[in-house]
Structures are given as structure tokens and as C-alpha cells.
């Protein structure tokens, strides 16, 4: 298999995954029928509000959700020809850390407080590479150097509490990359950090990706982070991907009303003095998903459509303390993800010719040529990223 | 898990009452959903009824009437002999039932005493702060530095054999006289005066939190008096702790009676569950098991019910767990 | 860290004074005439006076101004019951005609011979069970441990002791029913009490540490360790256990005085001549000096142990050392 062929083959392919959690009030499903592919060297972002199931997706890929109460009910997760969901736990451990590494949102608590940094990195190294503890420490030192930590030889013997949050996240990245994984899952890697540190960490991730050629699955709720880092974006809402496209396509031409709403709630340059739009209501709790399209109680598109529609085709709903008319179709039937344009998937009844669009697995090989600092978004203006916002 | 108490951001009294009523209503709904909690409540209610009934004079008579020879095993021949007889031929079943009287007296009065002291000091310390808080904190730190069993022993030791002005009934004529303290009263005092530390600490912490809440600040700004703030705003918000402490405290008191009696500092002159187990320490080696087993079962079932009920109450009432719903 | 330790030590001083005051109030001000209680009702005034002198009760309660003036010594001013207590100058035991300190030296090791092995075995079992059931949450073993521990908390410890004494001592006759012998044969007499301690406390302790382990298992660092590819066993035995050891170590230090104190009920039942039994006997014998001395000493020891445990906490937990 030559190199080009390898680049054309998906590194990780999640097919139709559904995750359930058993609770006192019955089973909830925070992730349903989710499919996503990641190609070598690609950065795929999963974006959505908290509670939409993006973190559960990430943990499920590594089979790290607490079991019980959690259970992966359906689907497959293919990594280079192996279905991770059917591996033995012992084989799965060979995947974790070695082939797929993960970093988390909370660098403050994600490191064990009673072990030194060196111990914790060397532990991962010794687990996956057959080296002596001395060599493991050397590798640990090198990976600390790689993530830009000054004086790594001394830092090895420090405890996590002696470091700042950004420093700890660097340690987490060093630990994750110490075994040269093919895929890094970054679950909200910058959310808990200061804005300047956020930018540094993202810059570091981009640099390391260029150097090591790994893929990144980036979980975030920050569109600025997406704009700067992602090649391909999946927008998640209430347990499902509702839109999937290249980052340029998505920012230029969002199809789903939820995605539109997300963009409207982000500050833009050149639109000074305008009040930011917000999406009314909140993400529904997985225990109380509405029927039909999960977004219809908050959707403005269906309300506008309902005004023009014959009353027999609409229903009255209560949402966020007020009543509204929405389309019966939206309230009763959940749309599936369809390829509404070439290379652009979305799940909304109100997209033109939605019923006619084919149902295809969302796969995009796209990688952007050079990682731009900011993305020009046509008439949407330029998204203010965390870094720029801070400079103003 | 959220550390927030149910948020009450209201000034008028009627609304507070409304909300706290729904807190109790909620708690009751939660409890009634758990069959085990309801069973436990039923068991405790039965003990309570038997305890109240045991104040009837017939119990005083029955425990001193030999129904057979000494050390007869349990038999179904008559109710009196259901649990066998003790060394003097007195019916164990009646001694056991009479024991609920002592248990009830001890748990109720010791709880009232310790909760009364603990809640009062806790609220005062938490609400007023400053040097009052310092003194009360010092007091409970000191008391909690003495191991509980030793403190109880010291307390009983100090009270034992001393004469107290006492209300006695002689020839049906009630009058005051100097007398030694009744052992039951002594145990109640020893338990009540030593066990207030836990609840005091808990309430103080809770009041400290509530004192800074908006609704208390608002009430204070509106000119509501201290007494009224304490009774209408603070107390209802910490009262659930009192309920939980009551059910778990009762377990400790019933068991402490056994320990004190066994150490010779407890009940004398009348049957109690501790007395029965103490009697059994020599009987058991001779194969006379019924008295020990009966008293152990009586304590075990009651304490099991109270422990489970206490857990259930904590789940249902503690605001710290409410956020997790 | 040093500032924290110094502050913590200073905060202990008022508590120690409080303990002195509390003991003094209970044993001197509230208590009945101890000399009369010891001597019995028939004793005449001369005997009583002699006993009072022996018990140190003829001294002034707080300060002795007259004595200081007569003897022209400041020392006599503080030669009072309160300062005797404060400076550990306990009167001799009436019953044993021996000093409290010497009694402590002879009886203490007997208590330790039972309490230390019991404590160590108990701790090991508790941790092992807690780690196991926390890892198998909701499974049969977990439910079983929770059930047994609630049952164990509900049944009086004395009943458990009695049952064990009857079963192992009287029925199976593996161990002597009660008694004590010094030296090597102590093992034989200590075994059953040790078993009793384990039986009566294992459930509670396992349940306690189960909660601690479960708390740790929910932390983010456990997720990180698993994401590295560590097997669950190793996650438990290195990452979790190391964190659980922090409360274990501090709890152990706080428990030390209780080991010396022994268990009153246990020693009384099995007739073991340890510290616990000494207290019980001294209460029977109205031996005020011993009861007072032991209550005071244990409380002070407990107070110091709490202090040490707090300080140790700041040493073993790397997070605290920055404070």
C-alpha cells in the first residue's frame, strides 16, 4: 500500500454508533446513530453545546464510558481494519494511549495529584514501548521539550499542583503524544484555560500535528477554535450530527437552522453595536428529548414556515415558557442526515428538496492546504477568534 | 453534585412557607417511592406504639411475676412463655416489651436534650459569629477531643451516687426530696450532654451559609427582627438536618445504653435491653440463649430500621443531594 | 507549610486547656465526695481525712494563696488540684497503691497486644474489600458487603462478642473463653478478642473506605490513566490506592490513642487486664485518681494525635504543601 493509498483510507470510521445509559428513570441515549470518518492528518471537529453528546462520543470511541451504567448499544468503530467495539478489553488497552490518545477538558484534575509528572508520562511510555524506566524518562523529557516546556529535566520531578493550568495541559499533551499515537482525541482541550493560553495550546496542537502527521478529533463548543483548526466539522445537537461539511463550506453556507443560530450567537468584526442573537431555550436533557426533530422547540425556521402553512399542517407547542406554532412534520418526524449538496450533509426537513437528497455516509477527505489564522467567511465576516478578541 | 441548597430568593414570609412546604412535600414523595423506607417507618412506628403502651401498669406487674421455673426455654404454650424465662422464672417476653419503655425514654429525652443544645448553640454561633462563635467553637472542639465513651463514663461517674433534689411519690403524696438520681435519668443526661457536638457543628456550618444568602440579607434590610429571621428563615432551612440526626442519634443511644449497662454504669433495678444482654453474658455459656437473642433482635431490628430510614431521609432531604436529581 | 503547622499547634492550646477544665469540672466540682465513696459509709472522720490527703483532695481547687504565704514559695501557690491535673501530677491509685503512669506502663502493652494486630488486620481487610467492591459496584459482592455492614452497625457489638465467645470458646473450644496470660501464650488468649474486633468493625470500615475509593474512582485522573491504556487492576493498585492512602494514614494516626486505650467492653468481657479493663475496674472501685487520669491522658493524647494527623496530612498530600 503506497502512501497515497493510505492517505485515502479512513484512519477511524465510526459507523452508526448508539450509546445508552441506564438511569433510574429508564435508558437514555446521549448518542444516536452517529457516523463519522477521520482520515490521516485530518482534523475533524465535533461542535455543539454542552450536553449534546460530543464528549460521550469521544469516550465511547476509546470505550472509556463508565460501564455500567453506560453501554454502547449499536454500531462499529473501525480503526485500520479492526472493529474496536469487538476487541477484547486486553487488546483495547493496546489501542488506548498507543494508537489513540486522549486529552481532557480539566487539566487541573486530569493528572494524578500524588505522582510526579515524570512518573505519569513514563508510565504510559513503559506500558506501550518496551523500554527501561531510564529510557522512558528520557522519552518523557523529550516529549515535554516537544510541547514547549522549559527545563523539562527538572519539571519531570514536579507534582501537577506545582504547575499552572496551561502547563498541565501541555503535560497532558506530552503524555498523550509520548507514544506517537495516530489519532489524538482532544475533548475541549482549551475550555478551562485563559484565552491567551488557549491560543498557545491550539497553536501547539497544530504544530505537533504538522510534525507528526497525526489525526485529531477535536471536541469543542467554540466556533473560533473550529475555524482555526478543523478541516471537517460535524455539528451535533441532542445526540445526533445535524450537519457535516468542510469547514469552509459550513462557514460559508450553513444549512441547518441550528448551525445558523450558532453563527449568529458569535460576535463578528464589522458588526459593532449589534445585539448578539441567541438561540432561545436550552439543549434538551437526554431523558426528555422531544418527539420529531429534536431542534423544533427552538427552531425559528419552522416557526416562520408554519406562518405560511395551512393550520392543519401546524401544531402548537410550548417552549421556554411561550407557545408557538411549528410544522407538524417537524414535530412528528425526525429528519435523518442527508447529503443535501455534494459533500455537505444536513438533517432538516425545511432544506429545499430535502426528501430527494440521498442518504449517504458522511465522509470527507478534505484537508486544508495551509492552516489560516482566521477564516474568511464571505458575507459572514471574519470570525473573531479567542486570540484576536483578546488583542482588541 | 451541586452544593446549592434549594434556592429561595424570596422575602415575604408566606412564600418561604410555601417553598419549605414543597420541600417537605418533595421529600415525602421521594420517601414514599422507596418501599424499604416505608417498611422502616412502619417498624419504627410499631416500636413507638409498643413503647408508649409499655407505660401501662400491667407491664410493671408482669415483669415481676414468675411464670415458670428459671431458665425455661421458649415455648408456644402461653404468651408469657413465648420467649422463655430468666433466672428467676420471670417472662422474657415481658421484660423485652418493658425494655422498649427504657429505650423510648432514653432516645426521646437524650435526643431532645442533645438536639436542643446542639441546634441552639449551632444557630447562635453561626448567626452571630464573632466572639460568640469563637467560644462555642472552642466548646465543641474541646468536648469532641474527649473520646465519646470516656466522656460518657466521666459524666456518669460524676453524677453517680450524688444526691439531687428530686420529685418523689411516697404514699401517693408527691413531694420534693433529696435522692440519688435514677439510672435512666443519668444515662439520658450523660448521652444528651455529650452528643450535641455533631449536630452543633453541622448546623453552624449550614447557618453560616444561609446567613449570607440573599433572602436573609433582604429580610434584614427590610427590618425583620433577629428572632423572626432565625425562626422563620434560618430554622426551616436547617430543620431537615435535625430530623436526620434524630434518626441516626437514636441508634447510637440505644447501643450506648447496652455499653453503659454492661460497664456497670447503666440501668439497674429494672429490665432494659442492655440489662438483658448483660445478664446473658454468663447464661450464654450455659446454653441459655433466649434472653440474649431476644434483646439483640429487638435492638438489631430497631437500629436497622433507623439506619436505613436515616439514609433514606438523608437522600430525600439533604439539599446537597437534591441538585444531583 | 511551616506557618500552617505552627498555626495548627497554636490552635491546639485552647483545646488542651478546655480538656483540663472539663475534666476538672467533672471530677472535682460535680463529683460527689470521692473519699467517702471509696471508704464506704462507716468510715470515721480521721480515716476520711487520711484518704483525702492521699487522693490530693485536701489541696485547694485552683490557687493556694495561704500556702504560698506560709511557705514563702511561689510553687506552693500552684500546688493545687487544678495544676496537679494540668501538669500530669496524678495522685496515687488507692486500689493499686501505684502511680497512674506505672499502671499505664504495665497495662498498656496488654491492650496493644490485642488492638495493634486487630487494627492492622482490620485495615488490610477493609482496604482489600473496599477496593474490590468499589470496582464491582452493584454486583453481588458489593450488595453483600453493604448489607452486612448495615447489619453490623445495627447489632450491638457486645452481642457479636458474646456470640463469638459462645461459638468459638464454648462450642468449638478453639480458644479459651476468657482470661489472660503474659508472654508467648498471650496469643492464645488474644486471638478471640482480635477476631471479635474484626467481626464487629469490618463491615463499617469496609463501607467507609468503599465510599472513599468510589470518590477516587470518579476522578478525572482515573479516566486519564485508563485512556493511557493501563489495565483496571493497575489503575486501582497504583493510582487509586496511592490517593486512598492519604485518608488511611491520617485516620490511623488519629486512631492511635484508642489502640492504647483498648476496648472497654471487649476487655471487660474477656477479662483482659488492659487499659480498658483498668478503667472499668477503677470505676467499680471508686478509684478516682485512675479514672480521672486516664480520661485526661487519653483526651490529651487524642488531641495531639489529631494535631499530628493534620500535620501529616499536609506532608503526605503534595497538594497541601503549598498552603
What can you tell me about this protein's structure?
The complex is a heterotrimer of chains A (392), B (325) and C (323). In chain A, the strands form three sheets. In chain A, strands 6-7-8-3-9-10-14-13 form an eight-stranded mixed beta sheet, with helices on both faces. Chain A has helices spanning 3-8, 54-61, 89-95, 117-128, 133-146, 152-155, 165-177, 195-212, 223-229, 247-252, 257-264, 300-308, 328-332, 386-391; strands at 12-23, 26-38, 43-47, 70-79, 82-83, 100-103, 183-187, 215-220, 232-237, 240-246, 314-319, 322-327, 338-341, 344-346. Chain A contains 14 helices and 14 strands. In chain A, helix 4 packs across helix 5, helix 4 (117-128) runs parallel beside helix 7 and helix 7 (165-177) packs parallel to helix 8 (195-212). In chain A, 31% of the residues lie in helices and 23% in strands. Chain A is globular, with a radius of gyration of 22 Å. Chain B has 325 residues and is mainly alpha-helical. Chain B has helices at residues 13-33, 35-53, 57-62, 92-128, 130-145, 148-159, 183-194, 197-211, 214-221, 226-262, 273-283, 290-317, 319-322; strands spanning 163-170, 173-180. The radius of gyration of chain B is 23 Å and the shape is globular. By secondary structure, chain C is mainly alpha-helical. Chain C is 76% helix and 0% strand. In chain C, helix 7 packs antiparallel against helix 12 (232-261), helix 12 (232-261) runs antiparallel to helix 15 and helix 14 runs antiparallel to helix 15 (288-316).
What is the average per-residue confidence, as pLDDT of chain A, rounded to a whole number?
81
Low-confidence stretches of chain B: 1-19, 321-325
Main beta-sheet strand count, sense and barrel state of chain B:
2 strands, antiparallel
End-to-end C-alpha gap of chain B: 9 Å
> Taking Cα atoms only, what radius of gyration of chain A do you get, to the nearest Å?
22 Å
Q: What's the overall geometry of chain B?
A: globular
| Order of the strands making up the biggest sheet of chain A | 6-7-8-3-9-10-14-13
The biggest sheet of chain A, with number of strands, parallel, antiparallel or mixed sense and barrel status, is: 8 strands, mixed
Mean pLDDT of chain B: 82
Radius of gyration of chain B in whole Å, from Cα? 23 Å
What is the chains' assembly state?
A: heterotrimer
Strand content of chain B: under 5%
Amino acid at each position: 500500500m503506497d502512501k497515497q493509498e493510505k492517505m485515502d483510507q479512513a484512519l477511524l470510521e465510526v459507523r452508526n454508533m448508539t450509546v445508552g445509559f441506564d438511569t433510574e428513570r429508564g435508558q437514555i441515549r446521549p448518542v444516536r446513530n452517529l457516523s463519522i470518518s477521520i482520515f490521516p492528518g485530518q482534523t475533524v471537529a465535533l461542535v455543539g453545546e454542552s450536553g449534546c453528546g460530543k464528549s460521550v462520543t469521544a469516550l465511547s470511541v476509546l470505550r472509556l464510558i463508565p460501564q455500567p451504567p453506560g453501554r454502547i448499544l449499536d454500531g462499529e468503530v473501525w480503526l485500520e481494519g479492526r472493529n474496536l467495539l469487538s476487541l477484547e478489553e486486553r487488546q483495547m488497552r493496546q489501542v488506548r494511549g498507543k494508537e489513540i490518545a486522549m486529552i481532557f477538558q480539566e487539566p487541573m484534575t486530569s493528572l494524578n495529584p500524588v505522582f510526579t509528572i515524570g512518573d505519569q508520562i513514563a508510565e504510559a511510555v513503559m506500558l506501550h514501548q518496551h523500554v527501561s524506566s531510564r529510557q522512558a524518562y528520557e522519552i518523557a523529557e523529550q516529549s515535554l521539550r516537544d510541547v514547549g516546556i522549559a527545563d523539562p529535566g527538572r519539571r519531570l520531578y514536579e507534582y501537577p499542583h506545582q504547575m499552572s493550568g496551561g502547563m498541565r495541559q501541555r503535560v497532558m499533551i506530552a503524555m498523550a503524544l509520548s507514544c506517537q499515537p495516530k489519532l489524538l482525541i482532544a475533548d475541549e482541550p482549551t475550555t478551562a484555560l485563559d484565552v491567551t493560553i488557549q491560543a498557545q495550546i491550539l497553536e501547539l496542537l497544530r504544530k505537533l500535528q504538522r510534525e507528526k502527521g497525526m489525526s485529531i478529533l477535536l471536541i469543542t463548543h467554540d466556533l473560533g477554535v473550529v475555524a482555526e483548526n478543523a478541516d471537517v466539522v460535524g455539528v451535533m445537537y441532542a445526540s445526533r450530527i445535524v450537519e457535516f461539511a468542510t469547514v469552509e463550506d459550513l462557514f460559508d453556507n450553513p444549512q441547518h437552522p441550528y448551525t445558523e443560530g450558532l453563527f449568529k450567537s458569535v460576535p463578528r468584526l464589522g458588526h459593532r453595536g449589534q445585539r448578539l442573537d441567541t438561540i432561545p431555550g436550552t439543549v434538551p436533557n437526554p431523558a426528555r428529548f422531544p418527539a420529531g426533530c429534536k431542534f423544533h422547540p427552538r427552531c425559528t425556521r419552522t416557526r416562520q414556515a408554519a406562518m405560511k402553512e395551512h393550520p392543519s399542517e401546524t401544531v402548537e407547542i410550548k417552549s421556554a415558557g411561550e407557545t408557538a406554532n411549528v410544522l407538524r412534520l417537524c414535530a412528528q418526524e425526525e429528519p435523518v442526515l442527508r447529503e443535501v449538496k455534494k459533500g455537505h450533509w444536513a438533517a432538516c426537513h425545511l432544506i429545499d428538496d430535502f426528501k430527494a437528497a440521498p442518504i449517504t455516509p458522511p465522509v470527507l477527505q478534505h484537508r486544508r492546504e495551509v492552516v489560516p489564522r482566521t477564516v474568511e467567511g464571505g458575507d459572514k465576516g471574519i470570525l473573531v477568534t479567542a486570540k484576536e478578541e483578546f488583542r482588541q | 453534585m451541586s452544593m446549592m441548597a434549594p434556592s429561595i430568593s424570596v422575602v415575604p414570609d408566606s412564600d418561604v412557607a410555601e417553598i419549605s412546604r414543597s420541600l417537605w412535600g418533595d421529600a415525602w414523595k421521594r420517601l414514599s417511592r422507596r418501599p424499604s423506607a416505608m417498611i422502616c417507618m412502619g417498624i419504627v412506628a410499631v416500636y413507638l406504639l409498643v413503647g408508649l403502651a409499655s407505660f401501662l401498669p400491667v407491664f410493671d406487674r408482669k415483669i415481676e411475676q414468675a411464670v415458670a421455673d428459671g431458665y425455661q426455654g421458649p415455648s408456644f404454650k402461653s404468651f408469657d412463655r413465648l420467649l422463655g424465662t430468666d433466672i428467676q422464672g420471670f417472662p422474657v417476653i415481658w421484660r423485652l416489651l418493658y425494655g422498649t419503655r427504657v429505650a423510648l425514654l432514653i432516645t426521646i429525652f437524650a435526643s431532645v436534650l442533645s438536639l436542643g443544645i446542639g441546634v441552639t448553640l449551632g444557630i447562635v454561633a453561626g448567626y452571630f459569629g464573632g466572639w460568640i462563635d469563637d467560644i462555642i467553637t472552642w466548646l465543641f472542639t474541646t468536648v469532641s477531643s474527649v473520646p465519646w465513651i470516656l466522656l460518657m463514663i466521666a459524666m456518669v461517674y460524676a453524677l453517680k451516687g450524688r444526691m439531687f433534689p428530686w420529685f418523689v411519690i411516697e404514699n401517693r403524696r408527691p413531694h420534693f426530696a433529696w435522692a440519688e438520681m435514677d439510672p435512666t435519668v443519668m444515662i439520658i443526661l450523660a448521652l444528651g450532654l455529650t452528643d450535641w457536638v455533631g449536630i452543633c457543628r453541622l448546623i453552624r456550618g449550614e447557618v453560616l451559609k444561609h446567613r449570607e444568602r440573599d433572602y436573609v440579607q433582604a429580610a434584614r434590610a427590610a427590618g425583620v427582627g433577629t428572632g423572626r429571621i432565625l425562626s422563620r428563615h434560618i430554622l426551616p432551612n436547617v430543620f431537615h438536618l435535625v430530623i436526620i440526626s434524630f434518626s441516626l442519634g437514636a441508634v447510637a443511644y440505644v447501643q450506648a445504653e447496652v455499653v453503659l449497662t454492661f460497664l456497670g454504669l447503666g440501668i439497674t433495678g429494672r429490665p432494659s435491653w442492655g440489662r438483658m444482654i448483660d445478664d446473658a453474658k454468663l447464661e450464654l455459656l450455659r446454653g441459655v440463649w433466649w434472653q440474649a437473642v431476644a434483646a439483640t433482635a429487638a435492638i438489631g431490628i430497631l437500629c436497622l430500621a433507623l439506619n436505613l430510614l436515616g439514609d433514606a431521609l438523608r437522600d430525600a432531604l439533604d439539599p446537597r443531594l437534591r441538585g444531583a436529581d | 507549610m511551616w506557618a500552617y503547622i505552627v498555626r495548627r499547634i497554636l490552635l491546639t492550646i485552647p483545646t488542651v486547656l478546655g480538656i483540663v477544665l472539663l475534666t476538672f469540672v467533672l471530677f472535682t466540682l460535680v463529683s460527689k465526695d470521692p473519699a467517702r465513696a471509696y471508704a464506704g459509709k462507716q468510715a470515721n472522720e480521721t480515716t476520711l481525712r487520711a484518704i483525702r490527703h492521699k487522693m490530693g483532695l485536701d489541696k485547694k481547687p485552683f490557687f493556694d494563696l495561704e500556702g504560698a504565704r506560709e511557705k514563702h514559695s511561689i510553687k506552693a501557690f500552684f500546688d493545687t488540684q487544678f495544676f496537679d491535673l494540668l501538669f500530669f501530677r496524678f495522685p496515687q491509685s488507692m486500689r493499686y497503691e501505684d502511680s497512674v503512669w506505672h499502671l499505664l506502663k504495665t497495662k498498656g502493652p496488654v491492650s496493644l497486644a490485642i488492638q495493634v494486630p486487630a487494627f492492622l488486620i482490620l485495615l488490610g481487610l477493609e482496604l482489600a474489600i473496599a477496593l474490590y467492591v468499589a470496582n464491582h459496584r452493584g454486583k453481588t459482592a458489593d450488595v453483600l458487603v453493604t448489607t452486612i455492614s448495615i447489619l453490623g452497625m445495627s447489632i450491638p457489638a457486645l452481642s457479636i462478642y458474646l456470640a463469638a465467645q459462645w461459638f468459638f470458646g464454648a462450642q468449638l473450644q478453639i480458644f479459651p473463653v476468657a482470661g489472660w496470660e503474659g508472654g508467648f501464650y498471650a496469643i492464645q488468649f488474644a486471638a478471640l478478642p482480635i477476631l471479635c474486633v474484626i467481626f464487629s468493625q469490618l463491615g463499617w470500615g469496609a463501607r467507609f473506605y468503599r465510599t472513599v475509593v468510589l470518590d477516587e474512582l470518579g476522578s478525572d485522573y482515573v479516566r486519564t490513566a485508563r485512556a493511557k491504556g493501563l489495565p483496571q487492576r493497575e489503575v486501582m493498585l497504583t493510582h487509586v490506592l496511592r490517593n486512598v492512602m492519604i485518608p488511611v494514614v491520617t485516620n490511623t494516626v488519629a486512631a492511635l490513642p484508642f489502640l492504647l486505650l483498648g476496648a472497654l467492653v471487649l476487655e471487660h468481657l474477656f477479662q483482659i487486664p488492659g487499659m480498658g479493663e483498668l478503667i472499668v475496674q477503677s470505676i467499680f472501685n471508686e478509684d478516682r485518681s485512675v479514672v480521672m487520669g486516664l480520661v485526661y491522658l487519653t483526651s490529651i493524647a487524642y488531641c495531639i494525635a489529631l494535631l499530628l494527623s493534620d500535620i501529616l496530612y499536609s506532608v503526605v498530600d503534595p497538594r497541601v504543601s503549598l498552603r
